[in-house]
Amino acid sequence: MEPLPFKGLERGSYVQIAGRKIWLTQVGDGPALLLLHGGGPGATGASNFSRNVAALASHFRLIIPDLPGYGRSTKGIDRADPFGDLAAAMLGLLDALGVDKVHALGNSLGGACALRMALERPERIDRLVLLGPGGIDTTQSPPTEGLKLLLAYYAGEGPTREKVATFLRNYLVFDGSAISEAVIDERFAMSIDPETIANPPLQPPKDITNALLLDLARDARLKALATPTLVFWGMEDRVNRPGGAQSLQQQMPNCDVYLFSRTGHWVQWERAAEFNAATIAFLSQSATARS
């Protein structure tokens, strides 16, 4: 049965972190689980995980922020080191909440953020769940068409509803007919916030001289990262190439991989029931991620 969307995620509060305001929602009880959304236009924590929160909140204390640059949080991301900037902000969020150790689950851009958090502060991350994470093998081949669309969303004529619809239906999921007009309207409305337009969160890299900051698969620390990790990837992902799953599994000592056929970039939405069950089973093997 298809999981029902969770109600009440519009209720949240701001947390001040190093000059930034981070919009945050918390639900559930148990080991702490940080949910980090992707980087598409109009993305927020609530919208990204709408089909997962109800199931996960019955097992974990969910910490669901809007990443810097997105939703209700302060706009602006360091284009020279976006993954590092986001990781530092989220580690700061954990400090502000008094959470010493957490499970981290990240989709796309959020996956790159979660992995960078583990590389920087492995003692703070109990287990990792990565969904088609960004920043994997990005220096090995040209950007995908889906990633090009994301990076160009605010360029040229600027944001349009048509651009959002094209990305969501043709690149985000395998079956575009599953994306409703309401989802497109919501994402487009979030993407044209004046502060967001003034500081677009996802742009072409400002400086590509340091490949380690843009391609986490080339980070030497990856082979020593013992954090138990579960990777989900859709075989029809047109944003981040599915080959990244094998790259991570080959380098990380404790990395398992689930590959989904007839599934695009949004595994947690397209295959919600299977994703929820596998994630709960994986994270339930450890009970140390508590505040």
Description:
The protein has a single domain, classed as Rossmann fold, CATH 3.40.50. Helix content is 33%, strand content 16%. It has helices at 45-48, 53-57, 82-97, 109-120, 145-151, 161-172, 181-191, 194-198, 243-251, 267-270, 272-283; strands at residues 13-17, 20-27, 32-36, 61-65, 102-107, 125-131, 229-234, 255-260. It has an eight-stranded mixed sheet, with helices on both faces. Helix 5 (145-151) runs antiparallel to helix 6 (161-172). The longest helix has 16 residues, at 82-97. The model is unreliable at 1-6 (pLDDT under 50).
In short:
The chain has about 290 residues and is an alpha/beta fold. It contains eleven helices and eight strands.
Q: Tell me the major beta sheet.
A: 8 strands, mixed
Global shape: globular
SSE order, one letter for each helix or strand = EEEHHEHEHEHHHHEHEHH
> What's the alpha carbon Rg, rounded to whole Å?
17 Å
Query: What is the CATH first-level class name?
Result: Alpha Beta
Q: What is the assigned CATH homologous superfamily?
A: Alpha/Beta hydrolase fold, catalytic domain
Tally of DSSP β-strands: 8
Distance between the termini: 33 Å
Number of helices: 11
Mean of residue pLDDT values? 92
Look up the CATH topology: Rossmann fold
Label the structural class: alpha/beta
Count structural domains.
Answer: 1
Q: Which architecture does the CATH hierarchy give at level 2? A: 3-Layer(aba) Sandwich
Proportion of helical residues: 25-40%
Beta-strand content estimate: 15-25%
Query: Could you name the ranges where pLDDT drops below 50 across 5 or more consecutive residues?
Result: 1-6
Strand order of the largest sheet: 1-2-4-3-5-6-7-8
From the structure provided, what is the oligomeric state, counting identical versus distinct chains?
Answer: single chain
